[in-house]
Amino acid sequence: MARRRQIYEGKAKVLFEGPEPGTLVQYFKDDATAFNNKKRGTITGKGVLNNRISEYLMLRLGEIGVPTHFVRRLNMREQLVREVEIIPLEVVVRNVAAGSLAQRFGLSEGTPLPRCIVEWYFKSDALNDPMVSEEHITAFGWATTQDLDEMMSLALRINDFLCGLFLGVGIRLVDFKIEFGRLYNGDDMQIVLADEISPDSCRLWDIRTGDKMDKDRFRRDLGGVEEAYQEVARRLGILPEGGPRDLKGPALMQ
Ligand code: C5P
């Protein structure tokens, strides 16, 4: 890890220069933060599981034609990705009222929404990721109206597909956050799904019991955080090298 040039360190991931031009190595940490860094902790094995879960979801999305930055997984905690210019927006898609939406509109968590809702937030820790409108986005030049159309249509396709995928393993996809990047190829520019999709960035509820299987267990001190992430991986059929034993074993510490 130390031999490579570090490009960026985020709260849950580190980006290193990749082996070929135009690539980066995305390293998944066990560090967890919430409420814009005010709450910090470690979820043992989270990095290993999120690397696997994000790989799995990006590959499935790639198969249905959603362009992503993912190239291949390198090892337990690292994946090779294409270097993209990140669009400074967090795109949140919601199917069920929860979290900040439930709070803002006084809805009880779990209220189904009349249709899925897409929201835009400006990526800025200093400003607490404020919610923004399409007007702000185009006026400040963070994205064009064409970019917004493309992100909206990709976000809805991703939501439809992931809702079905999770439903198949007994999980309700309540909401999630995604990020997009610009991939340049000569004069061409393509918007691709970037960052990660994992229980850190999704709300996932057990269909039968309603139990939370995501980062809300950490945010709200519900306990059983590691177990919840492991259960998501298990249901998706993703097991670390060595099989089911390793889900609890030392491999997650690496
Ligand atoms: O907190 P809020 O209800 O707005 O979060 C909506 C969804 O976006 C949740 O699934 C949450 O995990 C995700 N999110 C995220 N990173 C943020 C803010 C929200 O992954 N900075």
Mind sketching the topology for me?
Elements: E1 6-9, E2 13-17, E3 23-28, E4 31-34, E5 39-42, H1 46-63, E6 70-73, E7 78-82, E8 85-86, E9 89-96, H2 99-105, E10 112-122, E11 131-132, H3 134-139, H4 145-167, E12 171-185, E13 188-194, E14 202-206, H5 216-219, H6 225-235
Antiparallel strand pairs: 1-2, 2-3, 3-7, 4-5, 6-7, 8-12, 9-10, 9-12, 10-11, 12-13, 12-14
Short description:
The protein has 254 residues and is of the alpha+beta class. It has helices spanning 46-63, 99-105, 134-139, 145-167, 216-219, 225-235; strands at 6-9, 13-17, 23-28, 31-34, 39-42, 70-73, 78-82, 85-86, 89-96, 112-122, 131-132, 171-185, 188-194, 202-206.
Core attributes:
Phosphorylase Kinase, domain 1; alpha+beta; 254 residues; five-stranded antiparallel beta sheet; 2 domains; disordered C terminus; binds cytidine-5'-monophosphate; ligase; phosphoribosylaminoimidazolesuccinocarboxamide synthase activity; 14 strands
